[in-house]
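Protocol step 4 of 6: record predicted structures for both targets in the notebook before any analysis. Target 1:
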Amino acid sequence: MTRHLQNDLQNLKGMILSMGETIAERARSAITALLEYDPELAQKVINGDSEIDDLEVRIEEECLKILALHQPVATDLRWVVSVLKVNSDLERVGDLAVNVAERAAYLARHEPLGIRLDFARMGEAALKMVNDCLEALVHLDTDLAKQVINADQVVDDLNRDMFMALQELMKDDPAVIERAIHFLSASRHLERIGDHATNIAEDVLFLVEGIVVRHQHEEYE
């Protein structure tokens, strides 16, 4: 590996990790805004979307520059390809955080539904997946990546439970339908955050082991 390629790869690593940390913080803020009915925090997340978009473009441009200038092979090539894929998934997590914040901004202007919805647990589970997949990427930790993949089922189950609870509520009281739909949407967005964290974990496995596990459905023990 030439010194210039090594420097560019290190710079790329710093960029993708910085983006990941920023997006994890935005996702946490969006979930907090939803739980605490905080419209100002929700609006802050919404306003920050353009910053995430700019970061995605910069990282993509850096990847393309490395591919064009250095023509990396083997592990170095897998790293650049993996970053391109992780970059896209992280940007989508950022978009989903904005979507949650938009639901939070709406719900903050209305009365609570009056039933217990376990968004705190679901939010923490999704955030843990995001943080763990980034940790797996930093340390090329395949065991942690596999834990993230397995954890996706927990978020899926919580999303299903949320749907069932809100469906029953809407049947019993049509007056809450509009608010309930916003909660359903927020739940779905959190479930999708978990899906993108899973994608990143799968990219870590590809990077380290050179295997493609996407679309496979086995559990990793």
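Target 2:
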Amino acid sequence: MKKKIVGLGEVLWDVFPDRSCLGGAPTNFAYITSVMGDAGIVASRVGEDSFGAEALLRMNELGLDSSAVQKDAAHRTGTVNVELDAAGQARFEIAHPVAWDFLEWTPAWQLLARQSDAVCFGSLAQRSEQSRVTIQRFLSVTRPEAIKIFDVNLRQSFYSLDVLAESMNLADIVKLNEEELPKIMNLLGVPHKEERSAASYLLRAYDLKLVCITRGGRGSLLVQADRVHEHPGFRVQVADTVGSGDAFTAALVHEYLAGSALDRMSEVANQVGAWVTSELGAMPVPKHGSLAGSLAEIQFQ
């Protein structure tokens, strides 16, 4: 049976100089989750404006469950101005405040939380007190066996030590990138010497099941209490990197819920992340209707 997996937090439009793309880490995550064959659900909030209507329409076109997306008459739909450098790396300017800063706790969300097999949440959507309280309440009522994934997303000044520590305490899995790790260790007041020891510290300090550190095109490091796996990554022609980390997380969670070994989780997550990197936008449509087919057509090195 399909696993019910929730991307909890922001839905927004990534506004590039030449186009606008539906995005937001939880939304990207939920979409790739659905592509992987699970039931990906977006739990977020949009404004009652043209961007909000277009977001819901686009989700429907992508076959993405938007039934848990709230509508807000008082606040606009989220947007992010994105600039890409010559290497395809993105810089972001995030609008504030917007609809997803006002997530509401509702009976429908309580039911969804209790039905979920996994919930992925980040730090960005917790920049406002109302959304932070709602997200943490959502996580608190999930079933004991549900997996909670904290996908760190340090953007601009929209994070704090309290939010990061509370989120790691609530999580089973923490995923972050190689640039975010030293920042977090510095905030915690813990010397950062190298990635493996830092990941092991987080694993012990927050009683986690898995810590994942992504290294861009150089792969990833997965750390559990009794095993470690490093993956060198795949070299592809970069279209843009927006959403590649979210795709990695979705594939990782899919394999984790399937009971895969650490090396299998790592291989699939890196493949799917590389595929998104090789395509424009964070929600590419698999060629010929098959993710496997799309991966097979990429010249991995």
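Step 5 preliminary note on target 2. The two ends are 34 Å apart (CA to CA). Residues 36 and 251 are 7 Å apart (CA to CA).
Proceed to step 6 after PI sign-off.
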